Amino acid sequence: MSAPEVPRVERVSGTGIPVRGNDIDTDQIIPARYLKAVTFEGLGQFAFFDQRFDGDTPLEHPFNDERFEGASVLAVNANFGCGSSREHAPQSLLRWGIDAIVGESFAEIFAGNCLGLGIPAVTVDRDQAVALQEWIDDHPDGEITVDVAAETVSYGDREVEATVDDAQRRALVEGEWDTTALMRANQNAVEDVARSLPYVDLA
Question: Suppose 121 and one of 35, 111, 137, 200 were both cysteines; which one would form an S-S bond, judging by CB atoms 3.0 to 4.6 Å apart?
Answer without folding.
Answer: 111
